[in-house]
Amino acid sequence: MEPKARTTETRSNGTTSDGDEAVALESLQFTDEIHRLISAPSTDNASSFTALLELPAPQAVELLHSPESAKLIAAPAPNVEDIKGSFHFPSNTSLIERAARFSVFAGDSNNNNNKTGSAETTSNNSSQNPQKEVKSEPAETESCQPLVSDPTVEKRSIKRKDREKKVKGSTKKSKTAANESSEDAEKLPYVHVRARRGQATDSHSLAERARREKINARMKLLQELVPGCNKISGTALVLDEIINHVQSLQRQVEFLSMRLAAVNPRIDFNLDSIFTAESGSLMDGNFPSMVMPLMWPEVQVNGNRQQYQQQWHFDAIQQPIWVREEVCNNYITPENSLLSYDSSANSATLHSNQVKMEL
Amino acid sequence: MRSPGSLKQEFLKKWIMGFQRCSSSKKSMSVLDRKKAIKLSADIAMASARKGTTCWSRALIASASKDGSDKHLVEQILGPESERLILMKKFSTGALVCSKRIRSKKILKRSCGIRRTRKCAPQAALASSIAKRLVRKRTQVLKSLIPGGEFMNEVSLIEETLDYIISLRAQVDVMRSLAIASELVNHN
Bias category Basic residues: which stretches (chain A) (predicted)? Predict the structure, then answer.
């Protein structure tokens, strides 16, 4: 079944790369469901499709654990043609991530599951803005355009859906559309949600559920961003962690600005003098200092306060106040280990390189 | 996708610009004043690096532009964009009206909710209502942390938090590198 779809894809769509194949396949299935389910064509552009594509992302994680079948989300296929690349298509990684999630979602082989794990972590560590990821979806739908009318794949998707029990409320979906569009801060107008078995299907609860799913999707992203939140379950605790993280970051900004104020008698950071203090091994210093800042967000709190203070003593910096205040956050550790590798002369080099690289 | 490196670059550029404008204005300042100026220019630089795409950045710039003393610094850092961003500030002041509406809605909901909870079974709803109350408290705290957070609904609050955390991280990284580098230069 699967190879057939892939071969039809490759035949009809020679432009997509291998990485996009899974993407095209999964979105194809969605578009076929769309054709089946939605009689009335929606008037929206594919930005709603992007919202729908984005929503199952956290549910794909749930699906890995939950026995209940997938909750598919339909999107308006007829309007795929309307999009003329008005959105960015920044990179393929977000698409591959989404594709990987959908492929888990549709019960594909283990390859895709592995792809999910890796793609998810990499993309979420590098993702800046969920809206950008969302916006990259419509470009994906363009590539799936020629595959929409494939009947064989449609049958397959129907069989897959027979496993699920759903309530189809297409008129109610348009109501949820109106509800969502009014309250949505993003430009994604509406969302089609299929009710699960045993759940209420009136427009209010559908809208509620759609909203809750959106919130859960964002919370998942936040959980991946904030270190140490992955293991925590429960919204309140996760929110606690997020609040602590934001507060610690804000405090760090305060302390650092105080530190900078203390260093200079006037507000004048003489970057030239910093850069002229370099000596010799520039490129050697570059790589570790580039790697270290990238790794900082993933370092967990060790609780090794002894370690912090020892490494602080290795430097020429004598600021016991700042040590006490900054000792409780995670970000000091790799920096201190970085500093401890070198003598103080070289560490000046390293940090000037850091500043230089950030320019 | 915006890379963290380019964000840091932009931030640093604007921050240094802010420093230069700041140092040209006053001759000698106390440590606290300097710290305030540094923090302010860092915040403004960070917010302007987002170029008004996010709500928190607009709110941050708006609140900074409110004071007369900081206003010209803000305008200098922002440069030609300042007019546009201050116009966006007008949108955020429109958010004040939204906040009143939101507050009245909350009062209404609370009054209706009190009636509702008395009707339904206490046992079953107890755990979930406690959880809901906890979550609501946390979201209130989060709203107070994120600049301009009081006016957002939950969905956008979470997105703004995401963006804010990323920006804060970049800001902390750049500031720390600069601090350490300049300290080492000064001590050598």
Answer: 157-175
User: From CA B4, how far away is CA B168, in angstroms rounded?
Assistant: 11
Mean pLDDT comparison of A323-337, B39-53, B84-98, highest-scoring range: B39-53
pLDDT in the model for residue A225: 84
Using CA atoms, how far apart are residues A70 and A59, in angstroms rounded to an integer? 8
Q: How many helices (H) and strands (E) does chain A have?
A: 17, 0
Cα gap A24→A9, rounded to integer Å: 8
pTM over 0.90: no
B145 and A235 within 8 Å at the Cβ level: the answer is: no
Strand partners, A195: A167
ipTM: 0.80
Query: Around Cβ A328, how many Cβ atoms within 10 Å?
Result: 13
Q: What angle do CA A239, B148, A184 make, to 5 degrees?
A: 75
Cβ proximity of A193 and A173 under 8 Å? yes
Q: Phi and psi for A346 in degrees, rounded to 5? A: -70, -30
The one-letter amino acid code at A53 reads L
* A&B contacts, CB < 8 Å: 215
Contacts of B164 in chain A (CB under 8 A): 246
- Residue A234: pLDDT over 70: yes
Q: Alpha helix locations (H) across chain B?
A: 4-25, 31-49, 55-66, 68-78, 82-119, 122-145, 154-187
Structure tokens at A331: 């970000």
Of B134, B142, B175, the CB nearest to A256: B175
